[in-house]
Design a protein that fits this description.
Strand content: under 5%
CATH class: Mainly Alpha
Order of helices and strands: HHHHHH
Number of helices: 6
Number of domains: 1
Helix content: 55-70%
Radius of gyration: 15 Å
CATH superfamily: Globins
Shape: globular
Number of strands: 0
């Protein structure tokens, strides 16, 4: 039986450390840090740990509908989403994840883009 990425790297204890380090990078990023002003980071890191575990084949799961509901009001842009994926890739590299596993997590993140990116409409503007 093949182990999931989540299982191979040590489960929630490792994913939790990865996510904590990832958010340190996020808060330092001028492109995305504004999205997190006033956010309860402890709560967010808990939820994000479960979400990243989902992307790694772990036991937690978030539906696409849930992702859309919690992100719709944030106005996340393509540029911000791209920055987040770059920061996650760098974090996984620094935790010595295999490139194949990093690519798999990246692909899972990218598949959720339509449920996270909600740029304000520019229809009718010139």
């Amino acid at each position: 039986m093949t182990q999931s990425i989540f299982e191979r790297y040590g489960g929630f204890s490792v994913v939790s450390r990865v996510v904590s380090d990832f958010y340190r990078r996020v808060i330092d990023s001028p492109l995305v840090s504004d999205y997190f002003h006033g956010v309860d980071m402890r709560n967010l890191i808990d939820h994000q740990t479960k979400f990243i575990a989902t992307l790694m084949g772990g036991p937690a799961s978030y539906t696409n509908e849930h992702l859309a509901r919690v992100h719709a009001h944030l106005g996340i842009t393509d540029q911000a989403f791209n920055e987040i994926t770059i920061l996650m890739r760098e974090t996984l590299e620094d935790f010595d994840f295999d490139q194949t596993d990093i690519s798999s997590v990246h692909a899972e993140m990218m598949s959720r883009r339509p449920f996270i990116v909600f740029e304000p409409s520019t229809a009718g503007t010139t």
